[in-house]
Specification:
Shape: globular
CATH class: Mainly Alpha
Helix content: 40-55%
Distance between the termini: 89 Å
Mean pLDDT: 90
Bound molecules: protoporphyrin IX containing FE
Number of domains: 1
Radius of gyration: 25 Å
Number of helices: 18
Strand content: 5-15%
Number of strands: 11
CATH topology: Cytochrome p450
CATH architecture: Orthogonal Bundle
Oligomer: single chain
Length: about 500
């Protein structure tokens, strides 16, 4: 390059370098973490979380602000408690925060993190998520499962009707949970029970262990000691689960080689097997990836992410309706106006039930099913709201705290008042950061529509068919609303009711 050209080139290069330096400098020089409590040696602030971490973190956020940092063990943890900062994390910088921290349970239960929910961000995760979104959660697939859901709904109504006639108490938490489990297992495996295995018991144990707080995830040097015995238990259960899933997959493979009966609706195992070991080009992406372990990990994800969440959501909606007879009556009237004297609320009716949607939103606001969403992990150093967030930080979005923040929801924030949504354009898809029951961005819940159909249908059906009293003459105001923290946030005590038949 001639000196003349070099001079011209430098003339253009200098401002560019100056501009880039301006961009990089704040990132390097501002390494101030968000405010937060000073932790103890080794455990950091783990001792502050208590039995209900979403509440403890909300109390801390009142002192330290909507973006807060703390050490949990030796993990730098960032807690977000306002819609504005949630938007920066989940939308503006979604890609930086699109990964998940790896944990002990995921290693064993998700076959070395081959599932979607706890998988690290990357090519593999993107492709299996895309595959599941297209093949398993599409509107077409949800419609195709409508007949099966209806059959289970009819069974549920019939069980409650028998109890109502015999004036027996019904455990709504168990009954709804059972119905959702059956719907889920039928959708995944084509059947809900198998005499050879304790499918339900095994999956419940797995979910309990996976939801338990494992100290090894926060203080890795304690991992090999397995102080709580969790890793040992989870490995044993994974063996039982593996046998069940292997058997189901093998039987599906054998059945696939024979002729299916007419009208046979493929279940999830059939669909996943149809792409086993295949690779194909889809919109520029190569989809290979599905091996046997991957199928098993996806099935476990569907069970872990799909059952407890829907059951918990319904449990809280029903609790609030029983506590608020005015709202229950108004909802019953709306359903009657749409459904008339028909016994069963059909899929086609659901889109006409606007007050039901408000009731569901209000319940999500006050009783956010997954209160801290599923934790994210940052993939790069980044500055948010003037604070430095180092790579590999763990991020909790306290959606529960946002739902109860008076600065977001104005007056009567703790009152169950569905009408507050009447003039608000807030939906549940993760675009309104004040209400995030399904998360948002790249990691938003892919089962949202399926989950919502079940919640709408079961709640509408229960209140259409029955009235409810609390047992032993208990008044509605005495019904406890205590929570139990886990993967989801269910009631601490099951919801027991005395039903009476309406229709
Ligand atoms: C009312 C019911 C449900 C609620 C409240 C719910 C809520 C959530 C939430 C909050 C997340 C985390 C989102 C984030 O990190 O931003 C999530 C993720 C997920 N959910 Fe759901 N969910 C429900 C139903 C379902 C169903 C029925 C399925 C499947 C059968 C499902 C499958 C998943 C999966 C696979 C993920 C992980 C997504 C990823 O990491 O990419 N969910 N869900």
């Amino acid at each position: 390059m001639s000196p003349y050209n070099l001079a011209i080139f430098s003339l253009f290069l200098a401002p560019l370098l100056w501009f880039l330096k301006g961009l990089i400098k704040p990132l390097k020089s501002n390494r101030k973490l968000p405010p937060g409590p000073r932790g103890l040696p080794i455990i950091g602030s783990l001792n502050l979380l208590g039995k209900l971490p979403h509440r403890a973190l909300n109390d801390l956020a009142k002192k330290y602000g909507p973006i807060m940092s703390m050490k949990l063990g030796n993990v730098t943890t960032i807690v977000v408690s306002s819609p504005q900062i949630a938007e920066k994390v989940l939308k503006t910088h979604d890609l930086v925060f699109a990964s998940r921290p790896q944990n002990e349970a995921g290693k064993h239960v998700s076959y070395g993190n081959k599932g979607i929910a706890f998988g690290e961000y990357g090519h593999y995760w993107r492709n299996i998520r895309k595959l599941c979104t297209l093949e398993l959660f599409s509107a077409k697939k949800i419609d195709a499962l409508s007949k099966m859901r209806r059959e289970e709904l009819v069974m549920m109504v019939s069980t409650i009707r028998d109890a109502a006639i015999a004036r027996q108490v019904v455990d709504v938490s168990d009954l709804v949970g059972d119905g959702i489990e059956k719907m889920t297992y039928r959708m995944l495996f084509g059947k809900f029970s198998d005499d050879r295995f304790d499918l339900k018991g095994t999956m419940l144990d797995i979910m309990d262990q996976a939801g338990a707080f494992n100290i090894a995830d926060y203080v890795p040097m304690l991992g090999p000691l397995d102080i709580q015995g969790l890793t040992r238990r989870i490995k044993a259960m994974r063996k039982t689960m593996d046998t069940i899933l292997d058997t189901f997959i093998r039987e599906h493979e054998e059945a696939a080689s024979s002729t299916r009966p007419e009208g046979y609706e493929p279940d999830f195992v059939d669909i996943l097997l149809s792409v086993l070991d295949k690779s194909e080009e889809r919109r520029g992406d190569l989809i290979t990836l599905i091996d046997r372990d991957c199928i098993k990990a996806i099935l476990v994800d569907m069970i872990a992410a799909g059952i407890d969440t829907s059951r918990t959501t319904i449990e809280w909606i029903m609790s609030e309706l029983i506590k608020n007879p005015r709202i229950l009556k108004k909802l019953q009237q709306e359903i009657k106006d749409v459904v008339g004297d028909a016994e069963i609320v059909e899929d086609k009716d659901l889109s006409k039930l606007q007050y039901l949607d408000m009731v569901i939103k209000e319940s999500f606001r006050l009783h956010t099913t997954v209160p801290l969403l599923i934790p994210r992990q940052s993939m790069e150093d980044i500055v948010i709201d003037g604070y430095f967030i180092p790579k590999k930080s763990r991020i909790f979005i306290n959606a529960w705290a946002i739902g109860r923040d008076p600065a977001v929801w104005s007056e009567n924030v703790l009152e169950f008042y569905p009408e507050r949504f009447a003039d608000k354009k807030i939906d549940l898809k993760g675009l309104n950061y004040e209400l995030l029951p399904f998360g948002s961005g790249r990691r938003v819940c892919p089962g949202m529509n399926l989950g919502l159909v079940k919640v709408r249908q079961i709640v509408a059906q229960l209140v259409h068919s029955f009235d409810f009293e609390l047992p032993n003459g208990m008044s509605a105001s005495d019904l406890d609303m205590d929570e139990k923290f886990g993967l989801a946030l269910p009631r601490e005590n099951h919801l027991l009711v005395l039903p009476s038949v309406r229709i």
